Amino acid sequence: MTKTISIMLTAKFNGDILIKRFFKVDDRQQKKDQNIALCPKGVGVSLEQWATFIDYRLRSRTQEMCEKNASNREKQTILHTLGSKTITRKKHGLETANKRVFTRTEMYPISHKKKNGSFVNDEAREKSKQLTLLQANESSTNDAYIKLFGKGHPGRVRGLGFGVCPSQVMKSSKV
């Protein structure tokens, strides 16, 4: 990923207008120059950065990746309620506020409940119940989580966010 794309993503997270603006004006039938001319003004993005972003968005590889990601998102049935906040950040905030360690089992309902306390859907509620029951019967939190959700991708730990590796989790009984 180039520096320009990183700037665009940062701008998206800070104001959310650049990406929305691009998708509103992006017409695959329009010429590249017409899309470049629609560069948002007054948000700190140079014409050169916008042109690089348009080039990136119009590449066939990028479009294929976007379609694949959209297809994968449609397959997700249990969505979390953390928004752009990672589960790691949420967990850290809770641990700081409560001065104790939260397990993956405890984080699941927290990250899948709405503000009013209800689960996002029945499937999430059922998974939370199953996780609680398994936790009572298992010797470790990790065993219960793995039994219910399956083993994650190699080198990753499901339910703990980016940057946590299995060796860190299996050493600690606090997770």
Can you characterise this structure?
- The chain is mainly α and 175 residues long.
- It has helices at residues 3-15, 17-25, 32-36, 47-58, 60-75, 87-98, 104-111, 122-137, 141-149, 166-171.
- It has two domains: 3-75, no CATH class; 87-171, no CATH class.
Helix and strand succession? HHHHHHHHHH
The biggest beta sheet reads: none
Poorly predicted segments: 1-7
Q: Based on helices, strands and strand pairing, what is the structural class?
A: mainly alpha
> Approximately what portion of the residues adopt beta-strand conformation?
under 5%
Gross morphology is: elongated
Helicity range of the residues? 55-70%
Overall pLDDT score: 77
End-to-end gap: 33 Å
What is the number of independent domains?
2
Question: How many strand elements?
Answer: 0
User: In DSSP terms, counting alpha (H) and pi (I) runs of 4 or more, how many helices?
Assistant: 10
Radius of gyration (Å): 21 Å
What is the strand and helix layout of this fold?
Blueprint: H1 3-15, H2 17-25, H3 32-36, H4 47-58, H5 60-75, H6 87-98, H7 104-111, H8 122-137, H9 141-149, H10 166-171
